[in-house]
Structures are given as C-alpha cells and as structure tokens.
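Translate sequence into structure tokens.
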Amino acid sequence: MSEKIMPQHLARKAILYVRQSSAWQVANNLESQRLQYAMETDLRQMGWQKSRSSMKTWDGLLRAA
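Result follows.
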C-alpha cells in the first residue's frame, strides 16, 4: 500500500471508470483493455476492499436491451 493512501481514503468508495471510445478500439485495443481491467487488481493492492470499490465500463457502443 502507498504511504500516501490514508485510512480516510480507504473509507471512501473507489470508482474505477474504464472507457473505450469506438467499436474499432473495443475490437482492436485489447492490450489497453487488459491494462484498464487490471487496474481493479491495483485497487485491491492499494488497500480498497471489493465491497468499497466498483468498476464502471463504457465501450462506446449502444446495445439493444
């Protein structure tokens, strides 16, 4: 854990926002996508519990319900 992250930081919810801008990026930037999703693991290593964090994703595509 970083020495800059204090208990009052960990008491707050962490929200990780992952975004790909276009269908082409979603299909072709797989390494970038992998690194973005790996940031969730980084949150755990920094001390945030799964119950105190969430990941929001947006891939730039509108999907039918």
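Note: The beta strands are 14-19, 53-58.
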